[in-house]
């Protein structure tokens, strides 16, 4: 029992140490590549405080505000919200359950989910796969493999459908985006016979006219 605890402790230490400047630069590049107004909300991170501080400072340099609270913000900010979590951290389980329950995987929220250990990926992926990550979800799983992050998009075409994973690109110091096009709806045309269960009500106002072209969604 004691040995297990020590091993677990070393393991956590290790994964914390692995959150280095490279990870922070990746997150920053990812946001910049999106080119959208962004409010970054992080949760379930077991990173050291100074690493989190560094993340906050680095993304603020590109005009991104951060917060650690999942409490709903003003509706007007919804379109800017990008959630960040790290499957290497135990606490990310709670974040994923909370997000599933509160429907935070749906339009208009974006997600960046990090993972570095293949074992954890195997263990945690079912959480996402069973969750409501559907056709309107914009969720990117970024796996650290050596000195690269490999990015995939995940979604299920229907509530009972199997998860579809499509390549999104990689980061090796520069971010290479391999999406065939940026509009989500163009990439998600094949519903594989699943009924469409979502709907978006779009009010034609001056605000939507301003925001919609910036969302790459519709
Ligand atoms: C999904 O599966 C559940 C249980 O198997 C079933 O009750 C439900 O009708 C299915 N929903 C759809 C949309 O196929
Ligand atoms: C990253 O990948 C791109 C595209 O394959 C390549 O052109 C570039 O040289 C790579 N950068 C590094 C630092 O390896
Ligand atoms: C919307 O934009 C139009 C044209 O720019 C302007 O005339 C109108 O007053 C605006 N409406 C509101 C409610 O801001």
TrEMBL record:
Superkingdom, taxonomy of origin: Eukaryota
Signal peptide residue numbers: 1-18
Keywords: Signal
Protein known as: Uncharacterized protein
